[in-house]
Structures
1.
Amino acid sequence: MVAAVEAMGPYMVLCPGVALAHARPSPEVLQPGVSLVTLASPVPFGHATNDPVHVVIAFSATDSGGHMDVIREIARFLDRPGIVEQLRSTRTAEECLNLLA
Amino acid sequence: MAKRLVVMAVCGFGVGTSMVLRMKLEDVFQANGIDAEVFTADATTAPSERCDVIFTSRELAPTLNRRDVPVVVIDNFLSTSEIQTKAVPVMQQLLGK
């Protein structure tokens, strides 16, 4: 992912404060999955308008078509007004999961 | 019959960020009555894919080296208003409206 940012720029910084980290779908991916990390110290990715990043969402996909539903869910989740601020203010995994529920 | 435009959404690997963009573009086109086919591509294949218009990030746009079609830069891939403001005029122009 670091190599991707260095080579292609911080395109994965989707919207202010949020990066969607992922690699290419491949047979080396064991199973589809999603994870979410909130950063104690925000990280600048070098994005002109969306820096710094407070929340990193990672997902893995085994093929390029089957994860559309996951992407849709992630986009719908991030569309909620104030969600990034809410995620930033969580201090425990449980608080974070409650927001996802 | 109205022409159906082919739209390419580009990110580094063509599966994550561009997929979000494709979804938002489809929503905006539907809401504005624009008939278009949206597909995703990665930064490596995007320079040679056939399409009518390209949507991508600020950093990737110049690397695609496309002068044959409009390349539209989107900063916030989740912002319906930004995508609507930038995409609808380009699409209407391409459709000759």
Note: The mean pLDDT of chain B is 93.
2.
Amino acid sequence: MTDLTRPLTAMGAGHRLVAGGKGASLGELCRAELPVPPGFVVTVQAFERAMLTIDPSGEFVREVSRLPAGDVGTIERVTAALRARITAAPLSRDLANAITAGYRALAAPDEPGGAPVAVRSSATTEDITDASFAGLQDTYLWVRGTASVLRHVRRCWASLYNTEAVSYRLRRQVPEEHAAMAVVVQRMVDPRSAGVMFTCSPTTGDRSVVAIEGSWGLGSVLVSGEVTPDSFVVSKVTGEIVRRNVAAKLRLHQLDPAGSGTCAGDVPAELREQPCLTDPEIRALARLAAQVERHYGTAQDIEWALTPDGGVHLLQSRAETVWAARTARPLAVPKASPMQHVFEQLSRPALVDHPAERATES
Amino acid sequence: MGDDGFNFPLPSQIEDVPGAEGWRSMYQYFTRFQPEDDNRFWFHNAMHFPEPIPAFDTVTSEVPYTAIGANTARVFVFPTTLGIEHRIVNGRVYITAIPVTDPAEIERRLAIFTERAGYYYENWDALYDGWKTRMAALIDQIEAVKVPELPEFDSVEVVTGSQGVAQNHYVRENFHKCLDLYSKMWHHHTEFLMLGYGAYVVFFEFCKKAFPEIPDQMVARMVAGIDVIMYRPDDELRQLARLAVECGIDDEFIENRPPAEVLAALGERGEAGQRWLAAFEKARIPWFHVSTGDGFYHHHRSWNDDLTVPFAALPRYVRMVRDGEQLSRPTEQLKQERERIVAEYRALLVSDSERAAFDQMLGLSRVVFPYVEDHKFYCEHWFTTQFFAKIREFGVLLARAGVLAEAEDIFHLHHTEIDQALTDVMLAWAAGSEPLGARHFGPIIAERKRMLEVLKGWSPPPAVGPVPEALNDPAVRMLWGVTAETLATWAAAADSDGHEIRGYAASPGVVEGVARVLHSVNEIGQVRDGEILVCAVTAPSWAPVFGKIKAAVSDIGGTMSHAAIVAREYGMPAVVGTGHATKKIKTGQTIRVDGDRGIVRILG
């Protein structure tokens, strides 16, 4: 491969400026020998070279930097034009060749038309520990065929100028010069169930547990908020499932019957109230989550998918930002004598929260 | 307060059970709900009193509550809580702990508590050793109490020793001695208990704050001892099973064979039989002094009183030995696992300073825990079964004198009434006349027996009165498991679809199976292999039954309740503290026990 495309396995956490946040993180997971669907990255350098042709004078940066952060209408008007220019521009021959070669390599012998892939944006500004850029740029699932892959790479590039992404950068004062886009092309996983997991409790910050949320079909159904997912809390210490809440999951996202792209559908009635994961699967996911966390040394927010054969795939891992930002205050400090803890605690009334009072507070 | 949150009925709204309107005649005036009691929160102590209590058995609330409150409020002077008050309604005991809420008062009490509790915490092990000595002496004394036989002529020693006191005097003195020893036993029981719960509750609540998702039982596992005395009776049985196989006399242990028959048969098996019988006799003292209940009812007999329970477990253990199954508890492994759990949670704490505090709290909890885990064997089991046996002997005396139709009837009289009956007998023996008690007590006892039967059908609400402002008493939180969450669970039970029962997730796992609802410990023999035990509360001596069942559900109990501990030990799901399970579930129904979430579902 050229510097225009790089295999995921060659990437790592230090490659954000080559592979974008997502590409770097997936590469890092590959290095840790965690299960990641095979794929390659259309590098930031490929994007930058293309932009030299589309925008030789650097007007994109100037125009976007000038936009008023709060004026969504203006942002949308200006960025729509920029996006159109990116998607309309043809790819250079050497880049098209590199992507085509990378894509063909993903196909199995019985896939002459090419493998189904996910084409995923991977901005250099995304997934920075202190700023969760998740979901601001586009991802395309079930893309098939060389022409379609090439088209979706350009759409991913264009999504760097999505209204939400630009608004976010302006609001967070991320310098526009730093914004660039790599694209990850990965073999599509056809999941039976998918979801997210956190290596600490998202509701309490408890670091002794892994919290898993999942639903039937593609994980995008969780992001879109169309279902209440099943949720499971697993103790990292013992592997026990300490809490479970199986929800009625009415909708799912899946491969469009036309053969490419995705569509929404109804979950078959008999599956709706069934847990989307078996207990061994839940425990396997939790073990994997703990492994990822150990690898990074910080709490992680992980996307996972499970194929019908029970295979687990990690689609993304980024540093958990909510609880990491809070500095944990120690709950207790040692005392001159252990029994002083008792004296202190037993002189404090154990108040009962009255639901009525709690209701008025919230 | 609680207007649109939860509401419990008021004590005054509880109606007499039809057909048992006369229940008050069984109980003392100071146990009745008063009008002003409507202003306080009370909960049904179903852990200790799941069944309607016979008149004599009120001694097991009267005496413990005189002792527990004395130690909490007057001796150690806990800062935020006084003692426990109790009331009886429709044969059930409701209790409440009286909180101290005035900050100045808490401050004043704290100064005293610090000094007194501090003395015990600092010298815990030495004081606990002294406690064991005192308890052993009390057990010796209760076993030594003589119940006079009142023969036609008194013993000649009264004359030759110029004793000057005839036997009928000792009728009352020795009856009182039983009560006095029982009272002392309870004072000693609660001498350490509240301090034990006090230390544990601190560690428990720290863990809950540091790890909000930590299951209650995980905290318990970090503290729990490995060689716990309450496992000992069951361990002895397992060893006897092993010995039976070793001696080649295991063919005598057949399901449902009466113990007496087994023992007789073993007597015929020569040296091997004798060897087993000798080991059996050795194990009986003291380990078979374990109660089949937990010592709060006269019918909670010990294994020694009734060998049916241990002999029901032996055939299964024998089978396991033959099949080469691991019978002994893997103590080393359990210990390593406990330390691993501690190390992992400890590593997750935010700083070395917090870890040092954690070590202190865990350390103190482990100091006090052997008492928390082991005292019951000495108190509720060994002492109490011997106490009831003595009272039963007084019953025999009263029956022989014609006051009672049968010895067991003594338990339908309050101890003050027994005083009267004994006086009657003492007088009649002295006068050479007939006691008059039969005419007086006969109809009373008959009516009480009838009422108790009627009262069994009553479903007591788990709680009455307004939701309390605070639950300060450590025992209420850790022993009875009554916390803010429990209150919400009890209240929610009233408006669920009736098929779901919520409680504490006490031991993880999910299973489905056929329910066996036990209303009394005496029904323990009905449990079949693979059933799910549903009961008000279990006692440690039920351990053998846990080998048969695949899950346990109880009405009351926190994560330190026996059902919870034993279920974890056996690795089966358990949901405890449901408040209602024995009322809602019927024997034979299929239920799903979700020990991860604390939910029991009736499937049909």
Note: The two ends of chain B are 37 Å apart (CA to CA).
